[in-house]
Amino acid sequence: MLEKFLENFSAFVEGFKDQSTSTIELQLHEMENAFALVCFGSLMGMPSPPSYLGMALLPYLEHEIKVMIFKSERLDDRLAEFFDLSDI
Q1: Rounded CA gap, 42 and 45, in Å?
Q2: What is the residue range of 79's domain?
Q3: What is the pLDDT of residues 34-88, one digit of tens each?
Q4: 16-45 pLDDT, tens digit each
Q5: CA gap 87, 37 in Å, rounded
Q6: Please, what is the angle between helix 62-73 and helix 2-39, to 10°?
Q7: Domain count within the chain
Q8: What is the model's pTM?
């Protein structure tokens, strides 16, 4: 009986670890997005930080810049392409 309890408790702990790890990863992703928004907010009309601060933070934004470039290269507007082809 004790073995079964310990086995179930171990499974519960593993499930709890998996859930908490995925939650922390999601929060990290959202914080990275917020960090990039603060640094590149001028692209959306938000006030940007002073240039010296932006330059100091630039090494930490390497991943975000790569993701932004990757997404922008593969961004299409299918509806605009359709209207462009149909001369509407």
Answers
A1: 5
A2: 2-86
A3: 777 777 776 667 777 777 777 787 787 788 778 777 777 766 766 776 776 776 5
A4: 777 777 888 888 888 877 777 777 776 667
A5: 36
A6: 80
A7: 1
A8: 0.46
